[in-house]
Amino acid sequence: MTEAKIACRNLWKLYGSDPAGFLRRHGGNPSIDTIRAEGYVPAVRDVSFEVMPGEILVVMGLSGSGKSTLLRCLARLIEPTAGEVMFEGSDILAASERELIDLRRHKMGMVFQHFALLPHRTVLDNVAFPLQVRGTDRQKRELRAREVIELVGLKGREGYYPRELSGGQQQRVGIARSLAVGPDVWFLDEPFSALDPLIRREMQDEFLRLQRVLNKTIVFITHDFDEAIRVADRIAIMKDGVVEQLGTAEELITCPATPYVAEFTRNVSHDRLLSVRAFMAPASSRKPDAAAIQAQALLASVARQVLTSERPVDVVDDAGALVGTLSRDSLIDALYGKEEHA
Amino acid sequence: MSAATLTRHEEIEPQRQLASVTKPLLVVLPFVVLLLAASLLPDWAVQVPKGWTIPFVDWANTVIEHLRDDAIFGLFSFRDLTRAIAEMITLPLAFVEGLLVAGFPNIGVAAMPWVMTAGLSGVLGWYLRDWRLGALAAGCVAYMAIFGKWELSMITLSVVLVAAPIAGLIGFGIGILAVKKQWFEALIVPFLNVLQSLPHFSYLIPIAVFIGVGHKAGAIATVIFAIPPMARLTILGLNGVAEEVREAGKMAGCTRFQTLWMVEIPSARQPLLVGVNQVIMQCLAMVVIASFVGARGLGHDLLFRLQALKIGQALESGVAIVLMAITLDQLSRAAAHKEPAHVSSDATLLQRFPFLAASVAVIAASLLLATATPIAQAWPSELTLSTAPFWDALVDWVTVTLYDPLQHLRNAMLLYVLIPVRDLFQSIPWIAMVALVAAAGWSLGGLRLALTVSGLVLFIAFAGYWERSLITAYMVAVAVLICIAIGLPIGIWASHSERRTGIAKLLCDTFQTFPSFIYLIPVIMLFKVGDVAAISAIIIYAMIPIVRYTIFGLRNVPSEIVEAGITSGCTRRQLLWNIRMPLAFPEIMLGINQTIMFALFMVIIAAFIGTKDIGQEIFRALTFNDAGKGLVLGLCVAFMGLTADQLITAWAAKRKQRLGLAS
Fold it and tell me: How far is A280 from chain B (nearest CA, A)?
């Protein structure tokens, strides 16, 4: 098994007068009521997860859920109150300032919600900035910056200042800057939230295109569940500083761990996310029908066939062996929910 | 959830209503009782007994004398230190003066021809904004040359050009340190608050003691006076940098030093340049007033002519100062608002460096011109124009035609307003005043605020200048009330349309750039000397903030709320009184706060035209070089301002929070 790129274990971040002491007094695991009763603000509570190389983990939650604080703890922009953050197997919280700076100069990139561009620098100088601070000479850094600017589709705008660009273009600069040092890990903090819906969609496509080329390890923060579904390998849903559930989009929709997750996922259109496997009924072993459907096929792709068929349609696995059947009724239940149907 | 909140509201409402009536009553009640019972109170409760005076002045003088005469740090004394600092400004000052006006006779190099100065100013204006600003800057310089103010104005400009960068750098350094080190901020911010509310003259007295009197001392006073606003705006600017931008710097792998110099400071460029604008304007205001300790230049000229009551000539100098103020303000403001723009990649060298190219062209052209004709080097005195005859005629006309009505106005003001109010103020028992301030502090900010403000007032009471302070307070109170009565309607009127707002803002901006001393000229012309003249000067000067803040407050009422009012069927009047005014009220109160501060500044300067308040005492302290007295009196004035400031800011913050406008 490959090693996780980033892992956090029992990560805590509380705000208040003496959060570390408070946490110790309560055995390192106070309840939310105790936290609030003593006047502390819970931002991140006992969060643990791993992100594998090349994986996109989306942390999703509403405002105040602690998702941005969690990201900042991973990047150590904020000091966690307790817990561990491992970066490529070494504890980032134990790193000295020098080591941390080194890590950021070579291995991390971050994109910000409001772009956070430097207003007095041109596009080229903004993108070259991380290279400049680590001491790359001008010629080399500008060459690299031009490369990344072309990658994000801003060729020709190198000499512009941020205020001369549209929001979408500014975020492209932000993305280019975060990629300039060729980081392994890419943090994106609600990168498209400040953009118009149409531009947002375009940028999501752009992001996925880049990721196919670059294959970074990504932690992506968003408050938009549709966005999470579009880009995520796995999604962590946060509420009050706690990860309520972590899993693939399909898992969250089909087996929500808490009512909160269920509430979130209820209004998502299911047909393009869910596969046949989750809704089929078991079948006795026999030779499958010639018109059998694949177990991993998405519901949308088989809907017509199942809905127009008088009797349940056979479902087969990759090898072509029968694994179950899918009836009209169970498809309708899957798509529109049981209670409404009944 | 909503049901729960509703019931809670219902429970709170009656209590709240009761509190909103009783609380203000409770605040003024002790004051009113003590005021009415003044005749029954023992003497010590009405007048501060002489024996109770705490000898702050003596203490201050002891410290100052010790510093001046005895303090030795190793090899040099404190006095050596201050003199050494003073020497440091001599060289740059001599250099800039030589460049602009005096030339360098030792090495046989003449000063810059006036056409070069005018041309370069023009290029600067054009580069910073447009050709119109360039024309203003060049025109201003040309005016000085042609109207015979060349030497005076260039000396004044030299002091500003030398003092502003020094003050700016020191203030900048203090600001950075305060942002980076919390203990330093905790230490420096209260100090800055007091420094910024000290009247100009209080800066002059210690300077006179430690450095002496003269042009150099004036320049030092100017530097010191301009430091606090820069420090404050640096703190404000750096704290205002978005956290995300700072984080972007860190994530790019910046060291702390790189974060500061490459991310935070450039991102705060605009507020920092606004700070530079403030520094320049404060320098100009101070260099005019520093003529009292012997600074040369336009201010000295103005002071001299005012003392001789040559109003026409004083006006001529005043116009030159005003012109210089407007130009310097516009130039530095344009610098603050200049945004970088991209140049196309095939631009020529000329297009890339337009400022440099134009400057070189101007320098070459003016050197050529100066060798061709001496008029371009120095404007000949026989060709000098003077506007003094025009101003003299104006002054004569005013005196002849307006004498009677002005006398009537003046007498009426004195008889029916000023004297009764002054008598009322003087009859207030000092403990009543303390009680009022303490009660207000307690109701607005609890025990802490109550202790702070009553401490400030007690200092004034026990410093031994209570009666003088009451006179100052009465003049400020009358002036501020009149300012509100006039300024508020103007502000309301101006907030009605974009166009009116634009005009009013332009006027406010322009008037605010004038050094305060200028305002004495017209009032001396109209009312000669005395309380009426002083109060008029205060009113003109202190009107600016109330108008500005009223406009700002009214225009910044969230448009949704106004629209909600309109769709509810409000008339314009109802809209104003039921929606816009209540929401703008906290902002307007902050304007009144500023008006009080401005009035306190002006009332001290107005001592020049014969008032009998603290200002007169400060003036005396300046004449007798009594640094301790000057300092304590300055603190009295500053503490009056701070008391009002503390109370009003606390009130406005509370009110804004309740209205949900707090940011």
Answer: 42
Contact A114 B242 (CB under 8 A): yes
pTM of the predicted structure, to 2 decimals: 0.82
Please name the member of A105, A113, A120 whose beta carbon is closest to the beta carbon of B253: A105
Phi then psi for residue B223, to 5 deg, are -60, -50
A120 at B interface, C-beta within 8 A: yes
What distance lies between CA B110 and its chain's CA centroid? Answer: 37
CB contact under 8 A, B266 and A164: no
DSSP, collapsed to helix, strand or coil, labels residue A316 as strand
Contact flag A77-B251 (C-beta cutoff 8 Å)? yes
**Running along chain B, 663 residues long, what does each successive block of 10 average in pLDDT?**
43 54 73 78 76 80 78 70 80 89 82 89 92 94 90 92 93 93 90 82 79 84 90 91 93 92 92 91 89 87 86 87 92 88 76 84 87 81 81 84 86 87 85 88 88 90 86 91 94 90 89 86 83 89 92 88 85 86 88 90 84 81 80 86 89 82 60
3-state secondary structure of B345: coil
Rounded to 5°, angle at Cα B296 from B290 and B297: 100
* Beta pairing partners, B171: none
Q: Where are the alpha helices (DSSP H) in B463-556?
A: 466-494, 498-513, 520-527, 531-555
Q: In 3-state terms, what secondary structure has residue A188? A: strand
B375: CB partners within 8 A, 6+ apart: B383
Partner-chain contact B255 A187, CB within 8 Å: no
Give the CA angle between residues A241, A245, A249 to the nearest 5°.
Answer: 125
- Residue B387: how many CB atoms within 10 A of its CB? 17
Q: How confident is the model at residue A188 (pLDDT cuts 50, 70, 90)?
A: very high
Alpha-carbon gap: B442 to the closest alpha carbon of chain A (Å):
26
Joined together, the tokens standing for residue A91 give: 């504890």
Output the pLDDT for position B586: 86
Tell me if chain B has a CB within 8 Å of the CB of A169: no
B343 contact residues in A (CB cutoff 8 A): 159
Mutate to test the interface with A, among B251, B343, B352 (most CBs of A within 10 A): B251
Cα distances from A84 to residues A88, A89, B13, B193, B322, in angstroms, run: 13, 11, 50, 45, 64
pLDDT score, position B7: 43
Q: Which residues of B touch A (CB under 8 A)?
A: 242, 244-245, 247-248, 250-255, 258, 262-263, 266-267, 269, 339-345
* ipTM exceeds 0.95: no
Task: For residue B252, list chain A residues with Cβ-Cβ distance below 8 A.
Answer: 104-105, 129-130, 133, 177
**From A118, A122, A164, residue closest to B266, measured CB to CB:** A118
Q: Which of B318, B338, B202 is nearest to B274 (CA)?
A: B338
Sort out which chain A residues have CB atoms less than 8 A from B248's CB and list them. Answer: 110, 112, 116-118, 177
Minimal CA separation from B363 to chain A, in Å: 30
Extract long-range pairs of A37-44: CB within 8 Å, 24+ residues apart: A40/A14, A40/A15, A40/A16, A41/A14, A41/A15, A41/A16, A42/A14, A42/A66, A42/A240, A42/A241, A43/A13, A43/A14, A43/A15, A43/A69, A43/A70, A43/A241, A44/A11, A44/A12, A44/A13, A44/A69, A44/A70, A44/A73, A44/A80, A44/A241
